[in-house]
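User: For my dataset I need records formatted as: sequence, then structure tokens, nothing else. Please produce one.
Assistant:
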Amino acid sequence: MKGLPVAQTETLGSQPAPVEPIEPKHAVVVSDAIPLVTRSGFEFHVRPVKPSDKEALAEFFTHVSKEDLRFRFLSAVQEVPGSLLEMLVNVDHETKEDYIAVDIDDKTIIASAMVGAKNDKSEAEVAIVVRSDYKHRGMSWTFLKYVIEEARRRGIKKLQSLESRDNHAAIELEKEMGFTARSCPGDSTLMLLEFDLTVDQPKS
């Protein structure tokens, strides 16, 4: 989901918040990634990106559809260039964070979420994209919910997401999760979705 990789915006920092333990369904020895389970029972792990993830992230984007690449970067990119990959993996973990979701092998990247906040944490931009063959497992909902709660925990006041008007699935998901939607000022082809993190949301 979302537009350009938030090169000019900044973001979050520190370690992921503790989550309730789950019973793993496998015998794989996992890293320090946070385990999450979707409502359909699909398990995956989330952690902040590392510079060493560049090759795996490049591989991930080869499994993202051209349409989803367009929705993610709001441009007709055919592939993600190395310079952009460098920006995605070299974040400061204070004003910019990129969360990666990995399969239970803790190696295969299956989704990416970039969050970029202003220095005063008054607002942050969020962008999520899921690997094509891992869609329809409830990942987007669970991953975005985690990112929202991380942003709230770190003091972000508002999340914003720019979406192509054609990206109906993302717009509907975000609205269902509590984002409000309106036309993007200055660009009628985009929708601006916003989530006020200072207001308690009903538990889903």
